[in-house]
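Journal club prep, notes for RB
We'll compare a predicted complex against what the paper describes. Inputs for the nicotinamide-adenine-dinucleotide case:
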Amino acid sequence: MPTAQTQTITDVPMLVAGQWRASTAERFTDVYNPSTGQVIARTPLCSSEETSQVVESAAAALPQWSNTPVVERARVMFAVRELMQRHFDDLAALITREHGKTLGESRAEVQRGLEMVEFACGIPSLLMGQNMPDIATEVDAELIRHAVGVCVGITPYNFPNMVPLWMIPVAITCGNTFVHKPSEKVPLSAVRIGELLVEAGLPDGVFNIVHGDRACVETLLTHPLVSAVSFVGSTPVAQHVYQTATHAGKRVQSSGGAKNHLIIMPDADIDLAVKGLAASAYGCAGQRCMAGSVAVTVGDAADPTVESLHDLASHMRVGPTDGCDDVDMGPLIRREHVDRVAGYMDVAAGDGADVVLDGRREFDGDGFLLGPCIIDRVETSMRIWREEIFGPVLSVVRAADLDAALAIGDQCEYGNGATIFTNSGHAARQFKQHFNAGMIGINVGVPAPMAWFPFTGWNRSFFGDLHTQGVEAIQFYTRSKTVLTRWFKSPDASHHDPVWKSQGAGKN
Ligand code: NAD
């Protein structure tokens, strides 16, 4: 690992029309290694004018790329897949360096991103249309798909590699060109993805990177040359992006924050459920939109769950992750975020909840560390239940029965994921049918669907119609066109009645 003395702090480059270049921005923000607290790079905050130049580069590349045969577009993804496999460990190490999650978590993230690339390798099959001969007398109907145009992706800090890959492979293999605006906190993985796309042979201007904050984003949302916007981030920004970009006539998919509930039934295997709870709540230090945030214990499950979880969580190894393999939970993204998350201990205690495990303690070094936290006897009237915390904090709400647990879900403004731990098929079915969230787990702690299924957040966890991933991503990144065809018989044409018709059809 470089030391503070040897480490050079570089300005993160943009990718415009196939060229890496330094931004002319006057404002920059620091990128940290959360394990050490050191600044490792600076992200430029591009002006509106510079952002427009990037959009123009994507627009210039659009006609040729959208007319490139689909199998050639797919072949670029096969090459990206090979490159990602070859550089798998480096991609994972880079995520850990700029984000702080453990190396194991980073490897899992690269694997999920790779699966999106594999999904996009199948684009020739996925883009096939439909047809119906003789929909009326001698009229044939077909549905074909066209690219949408210049697409924009604005991504959050918590999955620097996977979330951009939710968007980029599908968008570009559908024939669109793309402008990526990564999180200013984790731009290095985005740049590495750009390098691999260029190395894979993607033509200049098909994929572009711009960096920035609000000014850059506003330009992207309203730019006349942009057709579609994909956003992933917190709910207030997701809602703003949705409203602004739809108002400007764009098609938009905008994923927001979450508050995910995990129900533990009295018949569940408590040991397995608690392992699932801990992995869900403390994986990636709680910085996942599918992280378990509220454990809802039903009936007698409460005391054994809290006791066993306390035992497990208080023995977790918390520490720096960059270059270290023997850590269960890494740092949070920034020092201010540690302070914000830790502040919820006091808020919860003030509201009358019971802080069973407080993660605040002295850690060696300057990393942005906080231990796992458990807050028991939380009520739905409390801030700790209502607000997205996005850190290693698990609240416990005690419910009398499954109906009461379902009613808690009905009060939640978010709707990403929810899981039930049970051995009862009936309880599982009730939960699956009636819980107020779009991604359901049955004895699965983090029910995040993989590339082939859409990422179906509900309520204020998603604004729009078509989600990322799966068939909805294909629909989002294409416009459908229907064609009706009739050819009139010329007067001298002979009538042809095939022999097979008179001999009976359907023999083979
Ligand atoms: P964020 O909303 O702060 O930032 C997301 C993106 O929006 C970044 O690129 C950022 O530069 C930009 N941005 C921030 N403030 C903006 C503003 N005022 N105007 C315009 N653009 C702005 O989110 P984050 O802190 O980077 O990421 C964590 C959040 O993302 C959590 O709420 C998490 O639940 C959510 N998330 C959701 C999903 C999902 O699929 N629903 C997936 C991952 C993360």
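Talking point for the session: Residues 1-6 have pLDDT under 50 and may be disordered.
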